[in-house]
Amino acid sequence: xxxxxxxxxxxxxxxxxxxxxxxxxxxxxxxxxxxxxxxxxxxxxxxxxxxxxxxxxxxxxxxxxxxxxxxxxxxxxxxxxxxxxxxxxxxxxxxxxxxxxxxxxxxxxxxxxxxxxxxxxxxxxxxxxxxxxxxxxxxxxxxxxxxxxxxxxxxxxxxxxxxxxxxxxxxxxxxxxxxxxxxxxxxxxxxxxxxxxxxxxxxxxxxxxxxxxxxxxxxxxxxxxxxxxxxxxxxxxxxxxxxxxxxxxxxxxxxxxxxxxxxxxxxxxxxxxxxxxxxxxxxxxxxxxxxxxxxxxxxxxxxxxxxxxxxxxxxxxxxxxxxxxx
Amino acid sequence: xxxxxxxxxxxxxxxxxxxxxxxxxxxxxxxxxxxxxxxxxxxxxxxxxxxxxxxxxxxxxxxxxxxxxxxxxxxxxxxxxxxxxxxxxxxxxxxxxxxxxxxxxxxxxxxxxxxxxxxxxxxxxxxxxxxxxxxxxxxxxxxxxxxxxxxxxxxxxxxxxxxxxxxxxxxxxxxxxxxxxxxxxxxxxxxxxxxxxxxxxxxxxxxxxxxxxxxxxxxxxxxxxxxxxxxxxxxxxxxxxxxxxxxxxxxxxxxxxxxxxxxxxxxxxxxxxxxxxxxxxxxxxxxxxxxxxxxxxxxxxxxxxxxxxxxxxxxxxxxxxxxxxxxxxxxxxxxxxxxxxxxxxxxxxxxxxxxxxxxxxxxxx
Lengths: 326, 365
Description:
heterodimer, A: 326 residues, mainly alpha, 13 helices, B: 365 residues, globular
């Protein structure tokens, strides 16, 4: 086989992996903030869906992709506030709240989308400034002369849309906030032992609300990425389970930011493979059916949750409402 | 002193929750630019105004009874099964395999075996998530959702492959033998001199669903297994100390849950379609969550909640005819709001109501 051609094929796969991982990375980090503070968030999916819808409509109406992102964050924050209200203020079941928000998003997006655009829940295709476009990073011509790295830089590192770079910057930022700031220390403490945080005179409620809200912002960007960068408009159920996959990746990553990056890239790679090579032929013996490659991310999620890849210890107080002693 | 009377706990608080959910739904309809009161009227007359409407309402209610019972029995063991959608789909495969295996002469001969096939396959689809929850502590909510996606892919594979009818382009099986046709409401009621609409898919599965409700009640409150399920749900550690095997209870409960969801296919596949298609569940697995929460996980409450959701679904279809701007996903919005208010925001209503009753109680003393 021709080495140059297969190297190009590899770069193409890596490039697609990066593109398909972005929404997962942001959603996974959203879950990380929330769960580190002790709030389960099954509703990542719904938050991404509603923000994808809002970003698509606002970007279409204003012809500005950045305004679309702002609208997406705003919508996602409303959902986060409801989740906070249910699980922090009213000490309700966090799983049920998340599931309800997911259904609410999948219903509302189609009902409102249909009423506005009459396209069966889809929004009109975004063009021009309504969409994000690829950024070509500097030094392409300089690096071009370096044999292997030159192509890698041009294909995989350069030529992505703005949110891609934002997502990859959020990973170290998350690490810094969680492990190098006072806020991060308190946030992690409130997920492990809220009573001790309370004893120290710090508000558990405020910390948990801020974690849930940060999750809202990140899900908003993730949703906006799906509708304004990965696709050119909103399609019904376009999140396709990414919120749940992000949660599985979070467990795989043992609730750590850089591990989360690795885990989500793995899922991105699986999706890229099923997109690029739908019919894989195994040693000329039989074809792997396309449905199997499509289901692969979901199957891997189950395998990861089954803990066949090492034991993960979740934050201790996760999912438990905090009741102050009286 | 009791915090509040029992009727307030089981009826008043849920009622306020549901009213709140409908109020917010009304706001959504208003935001779309339609009149919510007219929408309610169209839904009520569309679902109860004719025998055809009633037939469809009860047909959908039958589906929701199966999935609602499935979610409820798992709730009693404090397990959240969101996999009803996939379990019902795979249950349909089980039923279809049975119905296609022989040239069944009579429906009453085929029915018990089809029930067995649907329940076995539905239960089996819950087995892996159940085992992983019990043995490896993996999150049942996420695994069951993943199994919904995997079930959809598997259905696509089967119905485009080995189970496909070669004479059509569609992803579906060949028609079941005519002997497997379940008597419809029209056929049952006509000899009694009652004229019921011919066009509705309502069939004897409705009685099967009611039977399942009684059975679930019996299992939960009249058997040792039911006691163990409820004990496990109330306090896992106490149940363990009392000698209840946590792994066994988790797996059995979830398999019963999956089996109940699988039975949906008796109504939708054997009763209505007469062949297996890919998307016959149509979200009923998810509606089951709202039904179980609204019915407070009690079979009687679930039957009532199913009827309400049957009305919503059928009324929702009528609504899309009269108000083209309101699509049928409106039902999904209402369902989500009911789950939100009765399930997650319950304390928002409960706390003030409790305080109110405490104040009334103090005055009496």
